[in-house]
Amino acid sequence: MNTSSSCDPPIAIHQQSPNCDLNASCDWSSSLCNRTTVDNALQLPTFTTAAKVRVIITFILCCISTFCNLAALWVANSHKRKSHVRVLIINLTAADLLVTFIVMPVDAVWNITVQWLAGDLACRVLMFLKLQAMYSCAFVTVVISLDRQSAILNPLAISTARRRNRVMLVLAWSMSALFSVPQMFIFHTVTITYPAEFTQCTTRGSFLNHWQETAYNMFTFSCLFLLPLMIMITVYTRIFHQISKRMKGKSLSAGDPDWRCTQNNIPKARMRTLKMSMVIVLCFIVCWTPYYLLGLWYWFFPDDLEGKVSHSLTHILFIFGLFNTCMDPIIYGLFTVRFRGLRKHYCKANVRSDSENISMKTESLRS
Question: Localized where (predicted)?
Fold first, then answer.
């Protein structure tokens, strides 16, 4: 079987084409791959300098992500009473750890070996787990956004938040697994013997027509990025609109919590959690948008990429997407540890300054 077909688009982070993919050592179109065709002779992919840099950075990110996510998991589990927000963070951390322990090592090792050496069963299972890990990160992030929407738009329903989030999390993880099942059927190993024996984990031959493969790629892209993005934008637009109304005093009533009362600190805590979720969502969008936009460019205008986009850029964009798994626990740590300590220090400083002012005024009256 010849392997001179062009590479898959970036959504094929989960869908390998023979010899050519973001998770192998080359990129999307044949002109961007780490293989060349000279006088119609197929050149197999090689472990290029760009791929070596990618491997080094991926292993560094893997170590950082492991440490940060395990630390976040330990902090979230160290509290005797787990709030429903901490349960969400634990699930997001678990999803990030899946990416850390599956996507990153497989990507790095595959770049080193260039071809697939783990056999057909591992090819199918690992491709399933890779996509399932990516889906779970996106879907749990959506659940966090929906939870914040309920907390802001319907604060009196806090008593049902735990049960509601449990249902949404079960749906998120179930859908992640369900949408990834096709990977086990469309992926398989393909071996060629010319110009040398070479085996790759690929979708080649699984689709009868090119439009079927494109449709599957677009479905994956929509569920993995586009649909979550639209939901999150809608959710936070509604939240900002509601906050704006409340800040203007147009929707405050006797039954609503007063956002300007801070005796019990509940409004402040709710706003702090909202800010944390917003930063998590923003980080997800910033890290993955460039990667998927380049993929859309390839799907609709593949000829425009030829000679214009370096394969080093695709390596960079994929690594930038993986950086999201390192940022989530750092964001959680900043909003739950550092900010809390600064707030306590600030409050104590205010108390001291107020007491000093009172004592100075008292002394001046006495004199």
Answer: Cell membrane
